[in-house]
Amino acid sequence: MSEISTKPYLLRAIYEWCTDNGYTPYLAAAVDAQTRVPREFVKNGEIVLNISFTATSGLKMENDVISFNARFGGVSREIVVPVDNVVAIYARENGQGMAFEVSSTPARDDEVQAEEDVSKGPALSAVPSGNEDSAASAENPGPDDNNDPPKKGGRPTLTRIK
């Protein structure tokens, strides 16, 4: 008999920790053909869902799938997320939680990918040279190199480090 992954158990544990401490559990998931979510809320092939008791109805966190009903724009929708697609679960209020690696990169709906393109591997793209005019660099600033600590307050964010 094959061993069950620890991932669904960790998801349930973090969910319980969030609710026990009065936090709002959020679930970040990669979207593919097996994921049933409102596509209009998918950004960059991922969606973030509020899975708190007050935001969901009939939440089931099983070993292979997470399913529930939730309202989007006042309309009740059935949500189904395979556990393998879960990227992270965390508390909205402080960003504490756990991130996971997704076994394969799901195809985004807005990309048309042929089977032969998938097997070619990563594609390369041009990087703009350093002599671009200052207006272009002001529109697309580079990384923040000022080493200032993050400002307190505001909405916490989850940072994935690979």
Structure summarized in a few sentences:
The chain has 162 residues and is an alpha+beta fold.
Structural write-up:
- The chain has 162 residues and is an alpha+beta fold.
- It has a domain of 84 residues: SspB-like (SH3 type barrels, Roll).
- The chain contains 3 helices and 7 strands.
- The two termini are 32 Å apart.
Tell me about the largest β-sheet. Answer: 4 strands, antiparallel
In total, how many beta strands? 7
Indicate the low-confidence ranges by residue numbers.
106-121, 131-142
- CATH fold topology of one domain: SH3 type barrels
Please write out the topology.
Layout: H1 7-20, E1 25-30, E2 46-50, E3 56-61, E4 65-72, E5 75-82, E6 86-91, E7 97-99, H2 115-119, H3 134-139
Antiparallel strand pairs: 1-2, 1-6, 3-4, 4-5, 6-7
Provide keyphrases for this structure:
globular, SH3 type barrels, 7 strands, alpha+beta, 3 helices, 15% helix, 4-stranded antiparallel β-sheet, 162 residues
